Amino acid sequence: MTAILSELSGRAAIAGHRPWPRHVVDAATWIAVARALGEGEADLLSLWADEDHVHLALRSAALPTPLVVSVGVKNGTYPCVGGHHPAALRLERAIRDLYGIEPAQLPDARPWLDHGAWGLRAPLGARAPSAIRDPADYAFLPVHGEGLHEIPVGPVHAGIIEPGHFRFTANGEIVVRLEERLGYVHKGVDGLLGGTDLERAGRLVARISGDSTVAYGFAFARAVEAALDIAVPPRAAVLRGVMAELERIANHLGDIGAICNDAAFALNHAHCGILRERVLAACGRAFGHRLMMDRVVPGGVAEDLTVETARAILDVLDEIMPWFADVVRVYDGTPSLQDRTCGTGILSPALAARWAAGGFVGRASGRAFDARRDLAYPPYDDAAPDVPLYRAGDVDARVWVRIREVEASAQLLRRWLKALPDGPIRVMLPAPAGAPEGIAVVEGFRGDVLVWLRLAPDGRIARCHARDPSWLHWPLLEAAIDGNIVADFPLCNKSFNCSYSGHDL
Amino acid sequence: MRTLLFRSLLSPLATTAAPPPGDAALEELGRSLAARARRVYGRSLAIREVDAGSCNGCELEIHAINNPVYDVERFGIRFVASPRHADVLLVTGPVTRNMKVALERTYAATPDPKWVVAVGDCGCGCGVFEGSYAVIGAVDKVIPVDLHIRGCPPTPTALLEGLIALVDKASAGSRR
Prior knowledge:
- The longest helix of chain A is centred in the middle third of the chain and has 29 residues, at about 235-260.
- By secondary structure, chain A is of the alpha+beta class.
- In chain A, a hairpin with a 2-residue loop joins strand 11 (about 165-170) and strand 12.
- Chain A is about 40% helix and about 15% strand.
- In chain A, helix 7 (about 235-260) runs antiparallel to helix 16 (about 490-495) and helix 9 (about 305-330) runs antiparallel to helix 14 (about 395-420).
- Chain A has 17 helices and 17 strands.
- By secondary structure, chain B is of the alpha/beta class.
- Helices cover about 35% and strands about 15% of the residues of chain B.
- In chain B, strands 2-1-3-5-7 form a five-stranded parallel beta sheet, with helices on both faces. In chain B, strands 4-6 form a two-stranded antiparallel sheet.
- In chain B, strand 1 (about 45-50), helix 3 (about 55-65) and strand 2 (about 75-80) form a beta-alpha-beta unit.
- The model of chain B has no long low-confidence stretch (mean pLDDT about 85).
- The interface between A and B is large, with 58 and 50 residues.
């Protein structure tokens, strides 16, 4: 471990930031931290702006807990991290677009979320009026070489998917570069969250990425509870776990089927569609909402299970798990399907580690991190799941991680639902003392979701930042498609299944 | 493979019974389509889905109506890859400023006569994103809308009710 990280962890932290320490540092220390990240000494968890500071959350196996490091913004600028650690690049381009804060010496001068359509520059900073630009006015990186051609795709795609633009450069059928352009579904979530009450803020955060609504609600609630320094009752914690694992199973089932479908194997897609539907229908009956939106709230959960609805979820597991095992046998035993998934879209373990890729993307490329185990929180602190680990880094490995996670989640659910703790499901929130800050990392189906927030003394949100795992996955998709054929892109893309909305905010 | 096929032989029908066309949808369509030229569709509609800013929750349920349980194709409704092949644009929102041009171009690329269905509380209103610098809001602020299917997200059944009403109304002229 470099000296800077051990030295930092020895310093006194800012009061009122929980549960992990936050340190305000000078520019030189900040740059040293950025270098340490670039040298692989620590994982970047997130990077975000907040009035006159920029914060960076990191985690290192050598430190007892993650850390938040903050640097002051002077004359509208701060030393960039992306120049030392490329995983920070897009986060810093977003900071520049939204706040007008300049990451000094950032290697990429192009806007990211700002497509010139807002009529405003720096909407969360100076809010200067700005002329509307042509949305196509964007400088993609130049590609030189004989026989190369470009394939522009999107923002409107051919399937039922979110919008984004992919610029492929191909040599014949082989992709030599993919460059993404995102930000089309930017809804201004950061701006809407500032100054809102907790109830409305919770509803907003639950809609940052609909497929991960439980994970977002869970992370937001935990960040609020950290700021207020309260714990939720055991029954509420377990019910949160139940919802989070149901969400994971439903998404994995849908995506495993969809990946098979993209490899022209519709049979598994049809079966997975029915399996997913069984889970969502059970969620709808048990929690009153098929996706369980707004069911995890600060202080606990908004919906309780009865003996009957808990039993009904167990019955659905009993129905779908043997059925799913049949689907897995077909996946494992169909060479024409494996021919498409094995060796396709390889993400190297080195890149996965450098970008601190979470979720199945990281765990299929040898990065053994799962927030449920490695940053354990209730109810996982005494029920850590088995964390599958594969190293091949291809589409097949990502499918297998997800298959194993469905099985592990079903195990957790059975254990919890057979012995739900009694007691209340929600506690009243106390008024904040001062302007406390809270941070939480929750393992969604896609990877770790981070929420950081500061409360105002009146209990409203002063600033709230949410980082989707896709921020760190999207750039890796560009690397994974390299050298594959254009026709395998849907397969690679689906095997990553990054969130557009979660990234664009 | 054999076990799955055997399972299929022994299983009851996975598909749910068809819901009736939604009353609210029929009423809204009665108004919006009354003055419109009707084409012979033979009870068939091709739909192009456009996410103009959604959180992807609506997309999950739109996916669900294509699964074997809801099987929207049995009503003559199928999803197509290009707006040029589409009779209907199914649009989720809120329409972001960054997606406005793409939505307008998709609408322009769809041949007449065409219908637009706004899906979800955000597509029909603005949902929780009301008041942001980055969103325009409801779909009908950008392109004309014939039918609204509300919900956050609407359930697959609500989507089916609306789309069945649309296919009934759209083909009503041809059956006379």
